[in-house]
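STRUCTURE:
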């Protein structure tokens, strides 16, 4: 029978750093809301409009970035290059590092991978959040994104993938700039939901759970009125960003946001998740948000 475990092992929130890599990643940082214990840093190859309003910045040349990012962290454990040392300095004493990037370009894909490699070597937990190009951006950019994704998955403890094309299924007529802003908000939502339940004592368990799945997908659902628990779980599993059969999932991270979480609601949600993803071990947490007027389930499925 799959395990069911909960967040909350210990006290204190992890020191968290969100690192926007490349234009798309830096743009995502601009929708981040302030939260205690969370800082942001923007990384690019030079001054760029996406850096506006972000105080902490690091500039790296793209030359040699791919080679540095691709090094095996188990075999090469030193941070000898200038780029690695610059990243390590920005990471400081972060417990959780979240590289955020749009794949397909040099700084996005390889920059995020290098951040994940350096953070892992420094002992931090790493959860990368990556978007892939729209089909209209061409096969060359999509091939570059696929190559970078393979290496990113090898370096980060876990990688959450959000294909841009899926946005066209739910909002096909949304203007491009608004579509990209919607993707940015979607990218940071699961991170913030996770941080509301995660403690520093949970980090070893989080690393293990993330490592136990090669791919992670996202579902978010809300429930109102009658049977909100079941409605929220159903909506989360019907997410356009969950593209593989839930029956294949090996891991599930379930984050429950409710006006007043109670044991009955949690039991119903976890039971419904188990019915839909029966092979998945579950790690869950629940919290009450003052801004919440509906029950929301954020689901990370790993296989």
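SEQUENCE:
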């Amino acid at each position: 029978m799959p395990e069911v475990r909960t967040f909350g092992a210990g006290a204190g929130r992890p020191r968290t750093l969100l690192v926007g890599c490349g234009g798309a990643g830096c743009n995502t940082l601009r929708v981040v809301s302030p939260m205690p214990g969370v800082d942001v840093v923007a990384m690019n190859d030079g001054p760029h409009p996406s850096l506006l309003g972000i105080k902490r910045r690091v500039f790296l040349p793209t030359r040699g970035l791919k080679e540095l990012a691709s090094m095996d962290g188990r075999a090469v454990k030193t941070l000898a290059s200038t780029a690695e040392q610059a990243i390590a300095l920005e990471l400081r004493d972060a417990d959780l590092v979240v590289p955020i990037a749009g794949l397909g370009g040099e700084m996005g894909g390889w920059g995020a991978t290098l951040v994940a490699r350096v953070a892992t070597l420094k002992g931090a937990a790493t959860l990368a959040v990556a978007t892939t190009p729209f089909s209209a951006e061409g096969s060359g950019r999509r091939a570059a994104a696929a190559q970078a994704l393979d290496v990113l998955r090898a370096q980060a403890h876990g990688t959450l993938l959000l294909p841009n094309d899926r946005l066209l299924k739910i909002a096909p007529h949304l203007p491009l700039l608004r579509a990209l802003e919607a993707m940015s908000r979607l990218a940071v939502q699961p991170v913030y939901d996770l941080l509301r339940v995660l403690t520093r004592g949970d980090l070893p368990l989080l690393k293990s759970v993330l490592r136990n799945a090669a791919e992670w997908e996202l579902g978010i659902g809300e429930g109102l009125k009658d049977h909100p628990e079941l409605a929220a779980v159903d909506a989360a599993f019907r997410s356009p960003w969950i593209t593989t059969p839930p029956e294949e999932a090996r891991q599930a991270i379930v984050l429950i946001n409710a006006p007043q979480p109670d044991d009955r609601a949690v039991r119903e949600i976890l039971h419904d998740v188990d019915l839909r993803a029966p092979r998945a071990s579950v790690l869950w947490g629940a919290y009450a948000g003052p801004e919440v007027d509906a029950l929301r389930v954020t689901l990370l499925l790993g296989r």
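REMARK: The chain has two domains: 12-210, 214-302.
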